[in-house]
Write a structure and sequence with these properties.
- The protein is an alpha/beta fold.
- It has one domain: 3-Layer(aba) Sandwich (Rossmann fold).
- Helix content is 41%, strand content 21%.
- The chain has 10 helices and 7 strands.
- The protein has a 7-stranded mixed sheet with strand order 4-3-2-1-5-6-7, with helices on both faces.
- Strand 2, helix 6 and strand 3 form a beta-alpha-beta unit.
- The chain is globular and about 50 Å long.
Length: 209
């Protein structure tokens, strides 16, 4: 029985990559998207790729970044799935290599219990191109999940992880149920369940029958 469900945010609960959307509005979308795609395929170190991408946002208005993060398109079925999980008494947590501007806002809309993400550093109302936070490294999600399991007294077997990219591998390693959702090949190879349709309610029919 699953007691804890952990979700990636970008391209899992949200339809797209937050940093790519921010970059597009800054006029550096193509360059950032290429780095994002390579990182999600596992071809680049996540920490280094994150730093490179955020550096390209330097000078962007902090308020503009917040506004964009508050108008993201959520994945079909996200709200319905989380509501059902909560009704079953399952804790729902988000781990994101993206940003709290997006995840903390989505928390109240989608209804998950907690979010762990990164913070875009700003000074005098503008992004500095620097970033810090909970999910900076390729191993961060697995490390945080292990600590959360100990805190909540929940085992690996009672944990479900859902993601799409290479930086989700570490949480797969400490999860009993591994769901690759519209995922890159590197994650599909390590999954128990593969869902290729952009509809998160498929998890209810494929995993939580």
């Amino acid at each position: 029985m699953i007691k804890l469900a952990v979700f990636d945010f970008d391209s899992t609960l949200m339809d797209g990559e937050t940093i790519d959307i921010l970059a597009a509005s800054r006029g550096v979308g193509e360059e950032v998207s290429k780095i994002t795609a390579a990182a999600m395929r596992g071809e680049l170190d996540f920490f280094e790729s994150l730093q490179k991408r955020v550096a390209l946002l330097k000078g962007m208005s902090e308020q503009k970044a917040v506004d964009i993060c508050h108008h993201l398109t959520y994945m079909p079925g996200a709200k319905e799935l989380i509501k059902e999980l909560k009704q079953r008494g399952i804790k729902v947590v988000v781990f994101s290599g993206g940003f709290r501007f997006a995840t903390s806002y989505a928390k109240d809309i989608l209804g998950f219990d907690a979010d762990f993400a990164n913070v875009l550093h700003a000074k005098d109302g503008f992004l500095t191109g620097l970033v810090g936070g909970d999910m900076m490294f390729g191993y961060s999600k697995g490390d945080m999940l292990s600590r959360l399991q100990k805190l909540l007294f929940i085992s690996k077997d009672d944990t479900m992880a859902v993601g799409d990219g290479a930086n989700d591998l570490s949480m797969f390693a400490v999860s009993g149920v591994k769901v690759a959702f519209c995922a890159k090949e590197i994650l599909r190879k390590n999954a128990d369940i593969i869902i290729n349709e952009k509809d998160l309610t498929k998890i209810l029919t494929n995993v939580l029958k």
